Amino acid sequence: MSSKEKPTLGGTRIKTRKRNIAAPLDPAAFSDAVVQIYLDNAGDLELVAKSIESTDLNFSRYGDIFFEVVFTGGRTQPGTIKPEEGERHHHSVFDGEPKREAILQSVVYIQKILRRRPFLIKNLENVMRRFLQSLELFEEDERKKLAIFTALAFSQRLSGLPPETVFQPLLKDNLIAKGLVLSFITDFFKEYLVENSLDDLISILKRGKMEDNLMDFLPPTKRSAESFAEHFTKAGLTALVEYNGKKIFEVKLKEIKTVLTSQISDETDVDDVIEAVKQQVKDGNLPEIEVARVLWDVLMDAVQWSGKNQQQNANSVLRQVKTWAPLLNTFCTSGKLQLELMYKVQMQCYEDAKLMKLFPEVVRSLYELDVLAEDTILHWFRKGTNPKGRQAFVKGLEPFVNWLEEAEEEE
């Protein structure tokens, strides 16, 4: 065995890799440095943007603080919108006028920053989300400025700011109940529609998963179609009111179709179906003419069609008409509604080749079952306005019309 001493680590300095040393957090120093840039350039956002581009400040670590400075003029206390101690400037979004021209400058300025540092979009989302969830802590004019900024951000396509960043944080029960969300979203809609179409707005609402949930912006006590229409009409947003009315109408039509389809499939007694439809029409306040259209569509959708056998198709349709004639009769009570039913029959026979020759038989069957009146059929024959396949259908219906006219003369 060797008598030499084994080497030891005594007195040896172990080097530590730099990446394992955490740099101390100093958000205050970062905030003060950004504020100083504003002050040095007297709030000229174009000069501020150029100075920001050339600085070596740690934006990847302090991105949220940067946008706090942009919006409020300085750092805010954690979890609040209250100002933190430190330097501040008076050229922020909230320090300006609640007007488009003033706030647009900030939007353009942020766009320039994000083009140079696109990773900051996540920090912008974070700050926007926090501010939107804290609407009650802002003054009324500050909420208006935030709404205008948000609308202009979408209008200017601010580096792909996702709509859900805006809409989802707003859906807090306390904010909605106080009417703060409705006020904010109204200012947002009005500002966005200055330069954009309603279709553009609907596209944003779709991406934000709010297209079918506009009512959710209203306080629960005012969540009705009437309140929605009254509020947004007063705000000058009649196009939005019309759109929402159409959406509500479509939902109600879909509901009545679903109920009716299920009952027909289950072969529910026709009297029970009539009562169910009456209740749906009453609850939904549906126009009679739309009900007539829906009834025919659902009845025909339930027919078991044959691929090639024309006679089987004819028998199936006529059998369906005969079975559900009392339903049609209940809701096609005027000449106008009966004429609309004839137009529906005409369009279906025109659009479906296998039914092209069936039009006269269906009309005659509806007449014999007292669904269509003689005057309605003669009016359609002489003055019908729908041109789709009309020439062929008139020719096919001519023998039956001649018979009606002869019977009328004999009487």
- The portion of residues forming beta strands comes to under 5%
Largest sheet: none
Average pLDDT taken over every residue: 88
Order of H and E elements: HHHHHHHHHHHHHHHHHHH
What is the CA-atom radius of gyration, in angstroms? Answer: 35 Å
What is the rounded distance between the termini? 139 Å
**Apparent shape:** elongated
Beta strands, count: 0
State the helical fraction: 55-70%
Name the poorly predicted regions: 18-24
Number of helices: 19
Pairing-aware structural class of the strands and helices? mainly alpha
Q: Summed up, what is this model?
A:
The protein has 411 residues and is an all-alpha fold.
Describe what this molecule looks like in 3D.
The protein has 411 residues and is mainly alpha-helical. It is 64% helix and 0% strand. It has 19 helices and no strands. The protein has helices at 27-40, 45-54, 59-72, 100-116, 121-132, 140-155, 164-170, 173-177, 180-192, 198-207, 225-234, 238-265, 270-284, 288-301, 310-331, 335-351, 359-368, 374-383, 390-410. It starts with 26 loop residues before the first helix and ends with a helix. The relative contact order is 0.05.
